[in-house]
């Protein structure tokens, strides 16, 4: 045995001789052993519970057999939740043949649900409604007077004596001076409400683009740009030298009557009717 080992043994012996164990040392040793035993039991129990739960889940999946039911496993208990019942389609299923011509097979049905159109409420129209290239408010050139009446909550009244005329005026309640120009039905004894709105004029408010009666020619061009065509109106009721500036776009147009360098009449709607800037009289 080496000298180092002799010295170490001597040192340990001296310390052992001086060591005095505490009175509660046996109790602390027993408590620590018991604590470790409980920890080992708890860990083993947890692992066993997890393994058992996994076995239950596998068994339930195998036993389900493809049924459309969902099972939720919590601990050792299981709860079952069924999928909601399908809602009834608004229309009957339509059968669709999935086999080629001449072949035999089954047919699959496809449910087709049709969504009904959402009814639209009538739009209000009043003295603050601006004129547009298409017409005014919800009223558009090309719709019947009946449809125009249905599109707004405001009554529209056509003038009397429409028989034999090619242009009939109609007024909108509450819009003094605003006139709808109606092309009456050609068939005799046909309701004037089946006539077609062709143009609107008479509004003193600026249009959606800023044009208005009373502005200068330069201001009109600043708002609308250069006209798509210019029509001389030597025989116009507004006097010699007047012009009609037409601004056509997207199937609709503005017609502005210019006299003495001022806008004295403004119509909108059907490009073939915007020269009627003062009602049915040109």
Total DSSP E strands: 15
The secondary-structure class comes to: alpha+beta
Please, how many helices? 4
Strand order of the largest sheet: 7-8-9-10-14-13-12-11
Approximately how much helix is present in the residues?
A: 25-40%
Low-confidence segments, given as residue ranges, are 55-61, 66-81, 86-119
Mean pLDDT score, rounded?
Answer: 74
Features:
single chain; 282 residues; alpha+beta; eight-stranded antiparallel sheet; 27% strand
Describe the structure in brief:
This protein has 282 residues and is of the alpha+beta class.
How would you sum up this structure, described in words?
The model is unreliable at 55-61, 66-81 and 86-119 (pLDDT under 50). The termini are far apart. This protein has four helices and 15 strands. The chain has 282 residues and is an alpha+beta fold. 25% of the residues lie in helices and 27% in strands. An eight-stranded antiparallel sheet has the order 7-8-9-10-14-13-12-11. The chain has a two-stranded antiparallel ribbon with strand order 1-2. It has a two-stranded antiparallel ribbon with strand order 3-4. Among the domains are: 27-76; 135-280, no CATH class.
Which helices and strands appear, and what pairs or packs with what?
Elements: H1 3-18, H2 25-64, E1 69-74, E2 77-82, E3 94-97, E4 107-110, E5 135-136, E6 139-140, H3 145-151, E7 156-158, E8 168-172, E9 179-183, E10 196-201, H4 217-224, E11 229-233, E12 242-249, E13 252-259, E14 262-269, E15 277-280
Antiparallel strand pairs: 1-2, 3-4, 5-6, 7-8, 8-9, 9-10, 10-14, 11-12, 12-13, 13-14
